[in-house]
Amino acid sequence: MAEQSGTGTRPGGDFRRLAESFGGVAAAYDRARPSYPPELFDELERLAGRGLRGARVLDVGAGTGISTRLLAARGADVVGVEPSAGMAAQFLASGPGLALVRGTGDDLPFHDDSADFVTYAQAFHWTDPERSVPEAVRVLRPGGALAAWWNVKDSGVAWVRAMGERLAAALPETYHGYGAVHEFTSHLAPYGLRIGTAVLHWERRITVDHLISDLSSRSYLAALTPERREPLLAVERAALLAEFPDGWVVEPYVLHLTVAVTPA
Predict the structure, then answer these.
(1) Residues 145, 109: contact at Cβ < 8 Å?
(2) Within-domain flag for 117
């Protein structure tokens, strides 16, 4: 079943096992996962009412640092926050010189009023909003912003929808999409935050092999034994090559952004 991301409903099945699976696929994750278009950060700054340059940013659930590197390129003073040893090792290898702290969004290892932004790139659904939201509010300075965003494959495109349906049927207990990614705003209401949202559409052109590598880094596949995972990936490879016989895929994304600004 598709997860309703950000509502406090985490991916189905053994949540801890799924979360811990990322460490073993960190290299594939860093190599194959999609990046984010520059327009995302333009919208983030617009909704936050301030720029990233010179801002203190805590990038929570930083993974291998895909978003952390982009935030740093915008001039932010950014610290990655990541619980997985495997992901942290890849983060340091891919972004030498970037700061990293081991920790989770549910228990941020930072002082009160110490950050201008707390960001969650493809990561907020791995937190417990009843813990992570008050933690973010605690560490944010007045006028600071909590920002969460997700790249979601556009299921309005037939081949994307078909792939999701196959994986959901094969893995009914653990497969998760990103669902209604803005529903976590109910957890923001008690804090008097000014909430804004944006939706961006973008795409990337990649090979079928690249897309399969991306799939292999998804928790619902990474957590499987090779004996169970490889046949599922073979089915997806065959379906993709039937759809794209030249081996190239235009992969469409809908990028959802929510920004919640604390009172000044």
Answers:
(1) no
(2) yes
pLDDT at 180 (0 to 100): 60
Q: For residue 130, how many other CB atoms are within 10 A of its CB?
A: 10
Over 70: is that where the pLDDT of 148 sits? yes
In a domain, 40, yes or no: yes
61-96 confidence digits (pLDDT tens): 999 999 999 999 999 999 999 999 999 999 999 999
Query: Mind listing the pLDDT tens digit for each residue in 160-184?
Result: 999 999 999 999 988 877 656 667 7
The backbone torsions φ and ψ at residue 234, rounded to the nearest 5 degrees and listed phi first, read: -65, -40
Tokens 């997985």 correspond to 84
Residue 228 within a domain: no
Task: Please check whether residue 129 lies inside any domain of the structure.
Answer: yes
Angle formed by the axes of helices 226-243 and 158-170, nearest 10°? 160
**What's the total number of domains in the chain?**
1
40 touches 238 (CB < 8 A): no
Domain that residue 76 falls in: 15-153+177-205+252-261
> pTM of the prediction?
0.91
According to DSSP, residue 225 is labeled: -
Distance between CA atoms of residues 80 and 103, nearest Å? 9
